[in-house]
């Protein structure tokens, strides 16, 4: 790709995760669909927090996790998303900058607090998320930093932004800026229920020019309302330059033109917490892509990053992904 | 001991830990003494935070960690300490209640934010702490809940409170209430530099009637200004009913009257983070004591709790200490 200041600019919700363990019964007693994300109000967040056990707090947010992962590989990356000027906002801004991501979206002065996500981890390592979007929703088209977007090879957007109209407008603005500058637009579908809530908008956005699409099995079949993964994979082949379809421990399928590349998952001893698996897969993939690696190598970098993140609690890398990739012979 | 509502009421600073990894050079470059605690201002905290890498946040505070540990053993426990009505205050209050500790100190309405401690963990697992006391300092004699103190077998005080005059006054008030009601007073010396800052106050407090004293090697030798551990152990024998002297991997020495009981440390595969080792030793010991266990059994419960806490990041137990003690044959 052309020489640019940033490999990737990520745009998404700026969230602090509150991570607690729970059993399966807790999820069903509280009306949650295991493995998915639901939006909750401030009152619901307070009530649910009162019911969960002791927790830890750590920066999160889907695209923000991806940016942190790219920076951990050594990639140049920027993030756009809004926090409030409160303690969680400080935590979010500190962590994303500390890992080396350029971040300067002004924080919200008053009103909504920084977004938080109650992440409930069941004994099998699966995560179920309850998000209060707070200040994250106050991100509009005027926040889309044209300089930053046009100076990045790839503009990466998280589907969760579709849940708020203002953020959706920002989303379209960012994509327009990127396309006009001849940059690539990447999108992650984020969550099958999110796709279900906004299917037509997603389809029209994808058809309007998404170059690189990330989705897991339930998201891609939801997008095309097809029962079979293979059918959905066939549908996306005609619409995107590259589609990266992840299937958890079954690995990923990368579709591009006539090519179909299968990349096995990197084995892990035990899944401690699946939070961030998709985000970090995207991090490895996009880092590889901006370094002009082959699609198979991009997939392997994604699989490696995902394996690191699911081996511990939290969605931010605990080791240098660059060093990990070097140890695994994927980077020199 | 007599039948009471609570086994232990802990009184201390109400702190949220911000835990980050760093190398040895980072400590010396920032003028820190490895393994100790220093107090910093709000500005210093902000500046230092800007220099550290990505972090996680978790409830902390010395006596609060001890209370959390006692509750995890199944003990009835209460905590007195002050947070502000901010996000970190919510985190602290949530976590201590979620583990089963009674906590109802009103939060500070305005002014100082909730206390935070930048905990820096070096590759050897040792922790070095930088504390901004914030709202924690706004704890006075009038906050000492007489009902709660007199209804607990043991009132447990952390030495760190000596760093602020108002909290020190609260400390004396709590001890007076406990003694008058015929309850036991326990004290942890907290930190050798803290002892050094307030040696005469500590000595007069210990001589005024501390029944159970917790200290590590550097703290007890600092208290008595003796070079030898054995000499300091001899000095404390004359002054306290029970002294619990911890020596990291060399185990603990429990001194009571003419008895000297050596309790080996519980081996761990790798020390991930030493934060909370002393706090959790005290938790196991005090839980045993309030259950009328022998001093040796109390020491073994302390060693087990400490081994759990140093095997992972953070100073709050990740498993039920009750179940862990059952698996190790220490509880039925």
**Structural class category of chain A:** alpha/beta
Count up the helices of chain A.
13
What's the β-strand tally of chain A? 14
Main sheet of chain A, how many strands, which sense, barrel?
A: 9 strands, mixed
Q: Which strand order do you get reading across the main beta sheet of chain A?
A: 6-5-1-9-10-11-12-13-14
The rough form of chain A would be described as globular
Superfamily (CATH H level) name of chain A: Ribokinase
Helix content of chain A: 25-40%
**Number of individual domains of chain A:** 1
Mean pLDDT of chain A: 95
| CATH architectural group of chain A | 3-Layer(aba) Sandwich
Oligomer: homodimer
Pick out the low-confidence regions of chain A. none
Order of helices and strands of chain A: EEHEHEHEHEEEHEHEHHEHHEEEHHH
CATH class of chain A reads: Alpha Beta
Instruction: Calculate the terminal CA-CA distance of chain A, rounded to whole Å.
Output: 20 Å
Radius of gyration of chain A using CA atoms only? 18 Å
Question: Remind me, CATH topology of chain A?
Answer: UDP-N-acetylmuramoyl-L-alanine:D-glutamate ligase
């Amino acid at each position: 790709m052309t020489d640019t200041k940033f490999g990737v600019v990520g745009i998404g919700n700026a969230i602090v995760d509150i991570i607690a363990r729970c059993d399966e019964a807790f999820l069903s007693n509280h009306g949650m669909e295991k493995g998915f994300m639901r939006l909750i109000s401030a009152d619901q967040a307070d009530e649910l927090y009162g019911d969960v056990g002791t927790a830890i707090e750590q920066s999160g947010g889907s695209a923000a996790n991806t940016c942190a992962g790219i920076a951990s590989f050594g990639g140049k990356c920027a993030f756009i998303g809004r926090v409030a000027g409160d303690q969680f906002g400080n935590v979010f801004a500190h962590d994303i900058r500390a890992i080396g991501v350029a971040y300067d979206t002004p924080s919200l002065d008053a009103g909504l607090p920084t977004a938080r996500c109650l992440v409930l981890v069941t004994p099998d390592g699966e995560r179920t998320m309850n998000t209060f979007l707070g200040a994250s929703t106050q991100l509009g088209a005027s926040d889309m930093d044209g300089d930053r977007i046009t100076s990045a090879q790839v503009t990466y957007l998280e589907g969760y932004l579709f849940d708020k109209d203002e953020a959706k407008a920002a989303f379209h603005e960012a994509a327009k800026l990127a396309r006009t500058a001849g940059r690539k637009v990447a999108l992650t579908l984020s969550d099958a229920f999110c796709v279900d809530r906004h299917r037509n908008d997603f389809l029209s956005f994808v058809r309007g020019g998404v170059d690189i699409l990330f989705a897991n099995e339930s998201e891609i079949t939801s997008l095309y309302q097809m029962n079979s993964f293979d059918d959905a994979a066939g549908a996306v082949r005609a619409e995107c330059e590259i589609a990266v379809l992840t299937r958890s421990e079954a690995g990923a399928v990368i579709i591009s033109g006539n090519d179909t590349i299968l990349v096995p998952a990197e084995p892990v001893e035990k899944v401690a917490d699946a939070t961030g698996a998709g985000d970090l897969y995207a991090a490895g993939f996009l880092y590889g892509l901006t370094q002009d690696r082959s699609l198979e190598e991009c997939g392997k970098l994604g699989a490696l990053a995902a394996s690191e993140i699911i081996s511990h609690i939290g969605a931010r890398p605990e080791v240098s992904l660059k060093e990990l990739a070097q140890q695994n012979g994927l980077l020199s």
